[in-house]
Design brief:
The structure is a single chain. This protein is an alpha+beta fold. 59% of the residues lie in helices and 17% in strands. It has helices at 3-7, 18-30, 50-64, 67-81, and strands at residues 10-14, 34-37, 43-47. Strands 1-3-2 form a three-stranded antiparallel sheet, covered by helices on one side. The longest helix is centred in the C-terminal third of the chain and has 15 residues, at 50-64. The chain is globular and about 45 Å long.
């Protein structure tokens, strides 16, 4: 894989429920991740870096995961840091 393909922006259409879509959009805007809502109701996100991909995953996980999953994830992060 060449360097230019690593730096190329990747567009991703994200399927998010209507009630969560605005929260995802707002949070990604706060994080500086390019995103927009299309006329058909889909949320499109332009992921340019690995960091933005991680941010997208984190925002989606925060809104869709069960509380117990989030607690387990946090516990795992604390264990890895120690």
């Amino acid at each position: 894989m060449n360097q230019s393909s690593l730096n190329s922006p990747v567009g991703q259409v994200v399927t998010v429920s209507r009630c969560d879509r605005w929260q995802v959009y707002q949070r990604l805007q706060e994080l500086g991740v390019q995103c927009w809502c299309a006329g058909d109701g889909t949320l499109s996100v332009e992921v340019q870096t690995v960091g933005e991909a991680v941010q997208l995953r984190s925002v989606i996980q925060h809104l869709t995961a069960a509380r117990s999953e989030l607690i387990d994830w946090l516990d795992l992060c604390w264990q890895l840091k120690a």
